[in-house]
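Morning, I've got a small favour to ask if you have a moment. You're getting the sequence in one-letter code plus the fold written as C-alpha cells. Thanks so much in advance, here it is:

===
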Amino acid sequence: MSGKARTLRLTDEDGSEIRTSMDVDRFLDELRADPDYLGQIVHVHEVAPRQALYGELPAGAGAPLRRALDALGIERLYAHQVEAVEAALAGEDVVVQTGTASGKTACYAAPVLAAAVGGAADTSLLLFPAKALCQDQFRHFGAAAARAGVSALAGVYDGDTPAALRRRLRDGAGVLFSNPDMVHAALLPQHARWAQVLARLRYLVIDELHVYNGIFGSN
C-alpha cells in the first residue's frame, strides 16, 4: 500500500453517499479505479455462497428461551447455534469457531438472557478483549433484556465504571460485562467482596480467543 492515507467514499448515481450495507464488488471497482491504489490489488478470491443450514430446538425448550430469542429478534437458529445453545443449557463447555457474521453472539446471548428471563438467581460473567466491544455488546444485550422485561441488574464493570455503580454490581449483578484486566485487577483480588456474584456464577463467556505477549498478555 502507498504511504498516503486515503478515505474512500462510495456514492450513488445521484452523488449521495452510500451508508447502507457494503457492496463489495462496487468497493473493489472503486479501488481499481483509484490512481493511488493502481496495481495494488493482485488477486481477488470469491467464496461461493452456501445454502444455510437451520436447526430446530427441542419441542420441550422452555418458555424463557423462546422469550429470549424473541427479544433478540431471532426467528430461526442456524444448526451450529442450536448445537451451541443446547450444550450451554446442559451445562457443557462450548467453543464456537465459525466465520464472521455467522451468529456467534447468539450462541451465548440466548442462554444468558434465558437465565435472566427465567428469574433464576444464577449470574453470568461476560468478558471481552476491548472496552469498546464490551460497551457495544452491553448495549445490544440491554436492549434485548428491556424487550424481554428482565429486571435483573446488568452492567459494565471496567475502569470507567463509577464507584456507586461498582458497589451495586458487586452486591447484586445478574449479568456482568467486563474484560480480563478487570478480572485480575479487581475481581480476583477482592473475590470475597464479589461472593454474591461469583458463588452463583452459571455462565462464563469469553468473547473472542486471543494470544497476547508481554505485559499486556500477563492476564
